[in-house]
Design a protein that fits this description.
Elements (H helix, E strand, L loop, with lengths): L3 E4 L2 E4 L10 H5 L2 E7 L5 H17 L7 H11 L5 E7 L4 E6 L5 H7 L1 E5 L17 H12 L4 E5 L5 E4 L3 E6 L2 E4 L10 H12 L3 E4 L12 E6 L3 E10 L2 E4 L5 H8 L1
Length: about 260
């Protein structure tokens, strides 16, 4: 079913899409998008994803889509795919595509993955928005995968860790969870906000602080989250000055995944 998608109010069976050659969505990535699992999608979570799209569209002064068409497209495609990506063009057009979960996801969730520190020049555009201009994270992830490494961590000009190419970072030490603050220039992930809110509601210690290269060395465990993979531990980080190792099977990781 990989050739089935929804575009501008129509269900289309094809593996190509027709766009004008001067379409800003094609030329500049002038779109915003959100991605979620269909199996666990509730009305509440769906609205959170739509709210993030609405915020970005308003902030960028673009046109809101016909949300009824978006909902119809999601409903049509949900039975066919494990993951849906809802893309909104600058002029309000909606494009909804689907794919399946990574075949090794369960293994990654249990055993963790290796990550590499990305080249400092690879920074995400308009970090508070999930825009179609995702070239820098795509390049960082491609470079990692070419070296049989599963993820890459984006950094700022000081070398502080920000986020992975696909999710928000979490670290644990001495009974407290840590995550980089939004002010550092990271995406306000849906999974991040859910985990953060639940930790606070359950009176767990959680702090939003900057992840400097010196500070991250003392973390016991780290991982990353998004609305597709939930939470994946990172057991090894390859940095320009050496390798850092973390506990992928730490009890705190099982606890936060259960949230």
């Amino acid at each position: 079913m990989g050739n089935l998608y929804w575009y501008c109010g129509e269900l289309i069976a094809a593996d190509t899409i027709e766009l004008k050659i001067d379409d800003p969505g094609l030329l500049y990535g002038a779109t915003v998008f959100t991605t979620f699992k269909t199996a666990t999608l509730s009305t509440y979570l769906y609205e959170l994803h739509c709210d993030r799209l609405r915020f970005s569209i308003d902030d960028l002064d673009w046109c809101q889509p016909d949300w009824a068409k978006v909902r119809s497209g999601v409903a049509y495609l949900m039975p066919h795919f494990s993951i849906l990506r809802v893309t909104i063009f600058f002029d309000g057009r909606e494009l909804i595509t689907g794919r399946e979960l990574p075949p090794n996801l369960a293994n990654w969730q249990q055993e963790g993955v290796t990550a590499i520190i990305a080249d400092g020049q690879l920074t995400r555009s308009l970090s508070q928005h999930k825009t179609g201009n995702y070239l820098a994270p795509w390049l960082a992830l491609k470079q990692a995968r070419n070296n049989n490494i599963q993820e890459a961590i984006l950094i700022n000009d000081r070398g502080d860790w920000l986020e992975t190419t696909t999710g928000n970072l979490w670290g644990y030490r001495d009974g407290c969870w840590y995550t980089p603050p939004l002010s550092a220039g990271i995406l306000p992930g849906i999974a991040r906000s859910q985990i953060l809110a639940t930790l606070i509601q359950q009176n767990r210690q959680v702090l939003e602080i900057e992840w400097t290269p010196a500070w991250v060395k003392d973390l016991e465990s780290i991982g990353y989250s998004n609305s597709v993979i939930d939470f994946i531990p990172i057991h090894t980080v390859i940095t320009p000055v050496g390798t850092l190792n973390y506990a992928a099977s730490h009890p705190a990781i099982a606890e936060v995944r259960s949230l």
